[in-house]
Amino acid sequence: MTVAMAKMDRILFGDNQFFGVNHMSEERARAQAMRFRTVDDIIEVLDVAYDAGIRTFMCTTHDAIGAVADHVRANPARYADFQFYPGMPYAHKYANAISEVGVMETLRQFAPGGVVETLWKGARAGLRKDAEKLMIMLVDAELKRFGGTKAPVVFLQNVVVDLLLGLGMGAMFRSFHDYVRDNHGAEAGFFTMNMPRLLDTLESVGLENPIICCNYNKIGFRMSGGVELYDHTVRTRQVRLVAMSVLASGAIPASEAIEWICARPQIESIVFGASSRGNILQTKQLIEKFTTGLVS
Amino acid sequence: MVRVGIIGVGKMGLSHLALFNAHRSVEVTGICEPQSFVASAVQSQTGIETYKSYEKLIDKAPLDAVVIATPSATHFDAAMYAIESGLHVFVEKPLSLSAAQSWQMSQAAVQAGVANQVGYHNRFIGTFAEVRRLVRSGAIGEVYHIDGRAFGQVVTKPKSAMTWRSKKSEGGGCLHDYASHVVDLMNWIVGPPQQVLGARLTNIHSVDVEDAVYALFGYAAGFSGQLETNWSDESQRKMSTSVTVYGTHGKVYADRQECQLFLKPGHRFEGYESGWTIKYITELQQPVSFYLRGEEYSAQVDSFVAAAQAGETAPLNSFNSAYETDWTIDLIIKACAKTSRE
Hints:
heterodimer, A: 296 residues, alpha/beta, TIM Barrel, eight-stranded parallel beta barrel, 14% strand, B: 342 residues, Rossmann fold, Dihydrodipicolinate Reductase, domain 2, six-stranded parallel β-sheet, 14 strands, 37% helix
């Protein structure tokens, strides 16, 4: 299957706010977790964003998102242009399971079908293939809930990307890229907290001009190597970048943060999360205002 | 270059392997992991040599240092073997399952002149470091109470034991696995308690280990402390640790994300005015050159590598400070036994 290299939307809507993720305040995180108790609470906010013209929902593979996908699938007329950018895996699900039942049992739970038993017995000759086979089964399991919806870009979460990057297992990035392209008709994307270094590795396994989503903010929060290196990298190299944590979890005022990020024309997309209609509309308007040449 | 061997490639060992491997002053020259799938996957994809036992790794691989991330009950034997071989040693927390063993390890490491460090990563989090700085510099006046807490969802249903974390004999349980982090953090801020006045180890789902720990501390200076940890709290997305210190001039609270200081009217400290001042992790944390799961994990690796290069035997989180944590844990166990007899 060939994958069209479609340009990503300028503005993407994120999902941290739905799951009690807040990098600044546990109190705020808890308040969010309380507010988004049911899937309907999430859909209500998604509808505000969608009706404001934000078509792409960049999300985890949390169980609740599966229910959102069901809702979108069941209402094709309402969500004609709606698309998901799923990011997998929902890491806490695995991390908690590994503490609780161990690595092998976790794999057994999440990748049914006997592949783990094969690995356990140790078909050593084909280990590289087996690791890939395991990856494939986990990808399929994670993407199952998005069947019948549009998911043109599929991301690997930073906890996995940066682990593989640290381990020096760059070949897995290539395998992931090829698999989602050939079997899910999707482009591969990579979350990271180490963008320049990841780009080196992706290029070394033949992934040119890759899609990367990373923190990008004025204060350099979680930008390993620093703002200058990031700026230099996007100016001088080929990468399709999605900027996240542009406000550094609220450490930078919205207008200042967005003006700053929009002054970097090499950045293709900006992802943000918000819970209220006011914040969603305001953030969208700020991005449009500071994006040169974008017609709103 | 510091040549490092990783002993135990489980949940923490894998993370350490990635962090050390990504470090520009480190070469990972060998790993030891009994689970053949994990070991073979690492060897086939990274080319790093794997060994069946830590003795073989230490005897055969070219090494300056080892990281021990095996189940807690095995830390002592592996660390002592490494120290006797003259290697710098990083051990995951807790250092051992008894204060007596930890003391022995601490003494041996100092005598051998090797860098020694334990994985209490909270000490590398900027918000907690700020609490320590504020408390120790007298910003909140005289301390009269400290409160340390951690909650998370590790064990959420009854089941048969599946990993070492659910076996007491191997160092499983909320006390050694979870509460140790909080005890260590409290000790770092105000020093270890003189006595544990009462304690309760509570089973919620587990059979062989406790799922929650509650304890009341008494300190030599006359103030009190309270510990509350629970790893069966499903309202938490992930482990959340917090600490509050109360003093005669105000109080300070911190978690992973923020540090909140309250100063009574008429009191100020450096940039802090009276009333509430909140500082966030974005301001208090130094950036790292490679990030995985949190700046603190990279920062502790940087600290250990620097100590190994300098032959520094008492870095932050030395075996000696981890011994004090294990000593406090021993007091909790004793107090609990006493409480349940009465």
